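Hi everyone,

Forwarding the result from last night's run.
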Amino acid sequence: MSRRIILCDGVDLARLWGHIGAAEDEVLTWVPREDAPRARPLGFRSLQGGLTPEAILKLNPKLGDEFALVTEDLPFARAAISVISEAVPEAPILLLSDRVETEDLPNHSCLLRTGLRSLIRDDIDEEFAHLANLERVVELRTLFEPRERIGILLQPDPDPDGIAGGYALRVLLGRKRPTAPLISFGEVKRPENRAMIEALGIDVRTVTPEDLDEFDGLALIDVQPTVFGENPPARVRSVDAVIDHHPERSGYDTVIRDIRTSYGATSTILTEYLRAAGMEVKARLATALLYGIKSDTQLLGRETSSDDMAAFAFLHANHSPALLRRIERPALPTDGLRALGRALSRTAVEDGIHLLVLGRVGEDVIPQVADLGLQAEGAEWSIAAGTVGSDLVFSVRNVGYVRAAGDVVRRVVEGLGVGGGHRSMAKGIIPLKAFREVYGSATRAKIREALQNAFVNAIHGGED
């Protein structure tokens, strides 16, 4: 059985290590200083003969044993590394120090330096962060416990982060669907978001501002009242709680406000609440929160913090891969497949843009095709366009390191329709009447020509 041979520089660091606590496989050794007390720290042996190869060999090191040096003194660290290397060539060494830097040490094939007090400090800071989250949980539970019906309000056409966060808040409060429904002023439209609520058994009820009167508690998750317009409904201007990660807005009142703009997802905040409360996070909830973080940060690639990564790692150990696959790969209807086939027969990647014109389709097909289109060789942009009712609707995806998709779409629809989105995904809507007034007709060929030119100009226009 391999051992850890801990070599502490002086009595103070030995006592510090003793307070931390030793593992069963650790051999605790200290090197007395001439100007320090020589009383042996509890559990430690003195390195007989001082810091020499012979003294190291008296510890009976064997193949597989590891050494740790605990010191803040560079001369001691250099001498100890040299002595260990001479006595036990190639033995792995861990240096724990907040003052000694790796570049000042002698060469060694297996040497790792890390902090000592800073490691303890990080752990303490993390526990205080847990305590702050627990305090917020207590506040939320105290506030909502006497309420009969709590409305958990999400943004219109809520995204996975909001849905997961709302679901987590309901679990945190110990509520069920009848007394804490997830509500929104707009139905869930995107196919992967619908797949999410169907796979996880989550219901999001569409309501009107007047319906809010039936709730005696209101919490906003992943959204703030200003999203509902310059003059949001009166019931939304004064709410009980707002939990969000988007830029903070003013113009409303709330009892509890937890807005963390450094976080990539609101699901991260709710995950920290659950962990601080010591609650079991079951597979359905873990999968929802994991997908919320994954989708809002583009798989930890966009506006991601270390907190998001820690929450993602925690949830990953508890989620259901099968459920996640069902969410991420929603079924494409037969008519959508036919439209995709027709579009692919005429497709090409030009100027880094892969444009697929689908004709008349269900709106939920369009974003799915846009996702698929980005897989084409040479495509930096994927645009899927289709006719939905009296509108031309298009979804846009990009590789993430080019111009922001939302800004590009706003330039394309300027004066014709509405649109916007994030850096790597966006949506635009142009009424067919307005399109025909500018371009003369709305045939597939004309749509292809007009959109190709508009996106080339919006993406590449004005580049140096």
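The chain has three domains: 4-115, 126-327, 334-460.

Cheers,
N.
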